[in-house]
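pls design
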C-alpha cells in the first residue's frame, strides 16, 4: 500500500470591504477647520481607556430620527452622525499538536483527558467520531476547571455527542500553514480551518475561499471530490462548511471541491460580533496514489456586505 503525505501550505488571508459615508455631505469647512457633525447639547465628547471607548452627549434637545427628501437626508438626535465601521477577521487552524481525547460534553462543557495547553480566551474545536462523518463545533473557552473546559454558548457547528470513542478536542491557532499529514487508503483524514469575524454593518458579511490550483506534487495530483462525499479508499479531496445556510454554494450540504473562483463558505445577514465558522477539510487516497508531498495555496476572503 502506498501512502501520500498531503499538506496544504500558505493559508492566506485577504480582507475586502467597502464603506459608504454620507456624513461628508453635512460637513462644514473652512481653510483650516472642518466640522463633520454638530449638535445642540450641554456637554459630552469622546473618552477612552485601555479597554473601552465612550461617546456621550449631555442635554441633547432632539430625539433620534431621520428625515429625508428626494435629495437630502437629515439624521438628528444622540450622536446620530457618528459611526465607526467595525470589520475584523481572524483565521484559525486546528493545531494537531494539541490533540486530547474528549470523554463527555454537556451544558457547553467538554471533559478532556487533560486541559494542559488550553487557556481561557482560546478558541477550540470539539469533534465527535473524528473522520469522514465527524460532527464538530468551534467555540471560545470561557472557563477551565480541572479537566473540564467550558465554551461560550454561541459556538459554531453542530452539538457533538461525546462518549469517549474516537472523540477529540484541539486548540485553534493563528498559524499560516495547515498540514493534513500522512494519508492512508483505509481512512478519511480531516483538518479544520476556522475564522472569527465581526462586521458592524446591517447586511453582515460573507467568507469566500478559493485555491491556486489542484492539490499537487509535481505533475501528480489528488483529485477534487465530485460525488459530494470524500470516501476512504478513493483518491479525492474537498471540504464542508459549518454554515448550513449558504445561498450560492454546496459547501453547506456536501463535501465540495475548491476551485480557482471564490466560493461562499460562510455568511451572516446581520451585524455580528465574534461570529465563528469553519471548514472541515477532508482527504483520502487509493492504494495506487503516487506518494509525495502534495500542496496548494488556499485563500480565504472576508467581505463586509455594506
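designed seq:
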Amino acid at each position: 500500500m502506498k501512502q501520500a503525505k498531503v499538506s496544504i501550505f500558505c493559508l492566506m488571508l485577504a480582507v475586502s470591504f467597502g464603506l459608504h459615508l454620507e456624513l461628508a455631505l453635512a460637513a462644514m469647512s473652512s481653510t483650516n477647520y472642518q466640522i463633520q457633525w454638530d449638535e445642540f447639547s450641554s456637554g459630552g465628547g469622546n473618552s477612552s481607556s485601555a479597554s473601552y471607548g465612550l461617546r456621550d452627549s449631555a442635554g441633547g434637545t432632539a430625539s433620534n430620527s431621520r428625515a429625508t427628501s428626494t435629495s437630502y437626508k437629515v439624521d438628528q438626535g444622540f450622536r446620530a452622525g457618528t459611526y465607526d465601521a467595525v470589520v475584523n477577521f481572524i483565521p484559525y487552524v486546528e493545531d494537531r499538536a494539541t490533540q486530547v481525547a474528549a470523554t463527555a460534553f454537556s451544558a457547553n462543557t467538554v471533559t478532556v483527558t487533560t486541559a494542559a495547553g488550553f487557556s481561557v480566551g482560546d478558541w477550540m474545536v470539539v469533534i465527535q467520531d473524528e473522520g469522514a462523518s465527524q460532527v464538530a463545533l468551534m467555540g471560545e473557552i470561557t472557563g477551565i476547571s480541572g479537566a473540564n473546559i467550558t465554551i461560550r454558548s454561541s459556538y459554531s457547528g453542530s452539538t457533538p455527542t461525546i462518549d469517549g470513542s474516537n472523540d477529540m478536542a484541539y486548540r485553534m491557532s493563528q498559524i499560516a500553514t495547515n498540514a493534513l499529514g500522512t494519508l492512508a487508503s483505509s481512512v478519511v483524514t480531516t483538518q479544520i480551518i476556522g475564522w472569527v469575524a465581526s462586521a458592524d454593518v446591517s447586511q453582515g458579511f460573507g467568507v469566500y475561499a478559493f485555491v491556486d490550483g489542484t492539490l499537487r506534487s509535481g505533475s501528480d495530483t489528488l483529485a477534487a471530490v465530485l460525488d459530494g462525499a470524500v470516501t476512504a479508499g478513493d483518491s479525492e479531496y474537498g471540504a464542508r462548511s459549518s454554515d448550513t445556510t449558504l445561498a450560492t454554494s454546496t459547501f453547506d450540504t456536501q463535501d465540495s471541491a475548491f476551485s480557482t473562483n471564490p466560493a461562499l463558505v460562510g455568511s451572516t445577514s446581520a451585524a455580528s460580533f465574534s461570529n465563528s465558522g469553519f471548514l472541515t477539510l477532508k482527504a483520502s487516497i487509493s492504494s495506487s496514489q503516487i506518494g509525495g508531498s502534495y500542496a496548494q495555496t488556499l485563500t480565504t476572503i472576508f467581505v463586509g456586505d455594506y
